[in-house]
């Protein structure tokens, strides 16, 4: 399989590449969660664990010249042997095990395609500021520092069978356990026959972006820039990705909660009563149990005081708030109702990065954050995988920060640079 080849029109392509990997004694200590799940406190702890932690690349410090700093660190680590380039192009079998479902997939060079081509399907909108940040980092370093995460319905075909055989019988390149108790293993596939079997099993498929919408948008923008400058074809026609057969390894889908600083819980509840049925619960745990049992759209409000469950929105107000041009499935999503009705119509607050904070997965952390910010946490139930797939297949996108697919791949196990080939 030629390294210089372009993605096949209309087909899913995952080609081998020469991975860039850490050559340090404690590999677990140089890895990190994905960039958007790393807090400032996490950065300090990761750097305390190892001075060469990959967080120095994906979240370089300082407000000025920080992208250039990441490039200099990357080049320094390559020059000193902290990072080394594998001798041969490979697809990498990746396994994550431990708490949560077993994850296995292939890390490789994903052939890029525009959403309208229907090969790589986004399901979530992106924020321009985040794309600009990732683009500046990727443009300056000329590298993909962490894989995006994609799902495809492979029906347990040849790629999944090969992955299972590799995990069961071959010695891994990497076998580590990170501080959260999760195991990570990595193997390299270089045999031409195996690589052809993978490609044959993928070419007729299409993939859903589970995690990494901003990075995929960055891949596409960077490709446009290189082509506009007359530099094509090249490594910018591909992007680092983990591809998982969702039939063989079903994902989990977790919620992403909101915190509105400055909107007191008392005021949020009072204003919600004009559009929702409001049920008070003395303890957050009780409210969360009620949320799990609720039928129809529902949220929990939490902060400084009792928790409150919102159910049964006023149908007239809700109907007028939801965009009529959207599909019925889109209009029924709790995150659509949050973005189009609860936030802007009930509270007069836009769902943007300036006014609404994001907390992944943990409702108790969201409530604690709201208390610190003298605000209100909105606990959001997770979407259904089938609804997300239907939205993407129909060419629509869910509102920003609607989904958190997992388990997410660990950052730092294998990187990709444009120079490595």
Supply database-style keywords.
alpha+beta; 2 domains; six-stranded antiparallel sheet; 14 helices; 34% helix
**Proportion of β residues?**
15-25%
How many separate helices? 14
Helix content: 25-40%
Number of strands: 21
Total tally of structural domains: 2
Which overall shape is indicated by the principal axes computed on the Cα atoms?
Answer: globular
Report low-confidence residues grouped into runs of 5 or more.
1-6
Overall mean pLDDT stands at 93
Gap between N and C termini: 13 Å
Q: Pairing-aware structural class of the strands and helices?
A: alpha+beta
Q: Topology of this protein?
A:
Layout: E1 14-15, E2 20-22, H1 40-49, H2 55-58, H3 66-80, E3 83-85, E4 91-97, E5 103-111, E6 120-121, H4 128-141, E7 143-144, E8 148-152, H5 158-169, E9 174-177, E10 183-189, H6 192-202, E11 207-211, H7 213-228, E12 238-245, E13 252-254, E14 256-260, H8 265-272, E15 277-281, H9 284-293, E16 299-303, E17 305-311, H10 315-321, H11 328-332, H12 334-346, E18 357-360, H13 363-372, E19 376-379, H14 385-393, E20 404-406, E21 416-417
Parallel strand pairs: 6-11, 8-12
Antiparallel strand pairs: 1-5, 2-3, 4-5, 4-10, 5-12, 7-21, 8-11, 9-10, 13-20, 14-18, 14-19, 15-17, 16-17, 16-19
